[in-house]
Amino acid sequence: MKAQVVQVDPLPAGLSRDQILEVYYYLVLTRSLEERLVKLYRQGKVVGGLYRSLGQEGESVASAYALQPGDILSPLIRNLGSILVRGAQPIDVLRQYMAKGTSPTVGREMNVHFNDLKLGYLGQISHLGDMIPVMAGIALSFKLRGERRVGMAYIGDGGTSTGAFHEGISFAAAQLVPLVIIVEHNGWAYSTPTSQQTAVTSMVSKAKAYGLPAVTVDGNDVLAVYEAAKSAVALARDGGGGTMVEVVTCRGGGHAEHDDRRYQPQEDIEQCAENDPIERFTERVLRASWTNEGELSALRDRVHSELDEAVARCESEAPPDPDSALTDVLAMPPRSESLWFRSSRA
Predict the structure, then answer these.
(1) Order of strands, edge to edge, in the sheet holding 72-74?
(2) What is the pTM of this model?
(3) Are 110 and 96 in contact (CB under 8 A)?
(4) Torsion 108-114-119-122 (CA) sign
(5) Is residue 34 a contact partner of residue 253, using CB atoms and an 8 Å limit?
(6) What is the pLDDT of residue 326?
(7) Cα torsion at 106, 112, 115, 119 (round to 10°)?
(8) What tens digit of pLDDT does each residue of 271-309 get?
(9) Nearest-angstrom CA–CA distance, 179 and 242
(10) Alpha-carbon torsion (290, 84, 87, 315), positive or negative
């Protein structure tokens, strides 16, 4: 009797089976961490707003996964997956949202507004579009120093209508800097549909106007985003300059947890739910026999265990000491105590 042969599809170029499992781990970690944050938000334990990447986890994880150690990315509020791939720890994300004294910014900033340049991520400036020229400058520094490093910056389709975005890509294209720009085209700028804030139907035309190469990819196809980002990163690293990668995706929730998105057509909401990037990736890897349900289940259990520990630890930690507001304000200590400082402490 002949043994049954299981047909295994060839792995995507450049990815090993272990890497496929690692990508799955980050996808599940991103969504699960945000689900924990939603519960904490509803319990009144999150300080400020909560911004989810529901429906966009795939493009965040896949694009960041194309980078190498030494590269730097700048995330937006829906790129939690990107910084997790770069090495950000869930406990620090929880601390940020809950404004703990142990958070990377000592409770001064929230969500993903924090940095770790050693790991390779630079927190965003809140003004939309402004990180494009900032990251263009960082990428230029790589070029001037002869370093084979790459920058990656994220921007929403609404942000592509800001002046800073156009200044940034114009400079990046003219200077041939190693910068990959990920445009997240999810159809909404808060409650404004794309058609009401720009006349173009594809963001690619905005890049081409400045001579910047650009491609469009299905943002809910994890492997397609990875391959597009990998090609753009390789071109930048080899001195070929930047690329815009437009990922066409969908926002699975409102602008933030306080937004009930009543302005969004019901058919859009249903279509987004049917095009879930994690479900599509899971079906793809199982169908291709790159893994099995047992291995995926073990990874989900690992994520839940790690988050149980992180949440319990974070909830037990204290808020910032009020005196910490006076530390790390200046780049270097003043030569002598100022009169203002003495009088304010009297």
Answers:
(1) 72-74, 151-156, 179-185, 243-248, 214-218
(2) 0.92
(3) yes
(4) negative
(5) no
(6) 80
(7) 120
(8) 999 999 999 999 999 999 999 999 999 999 999 999 999
(9) 5
(10) negative
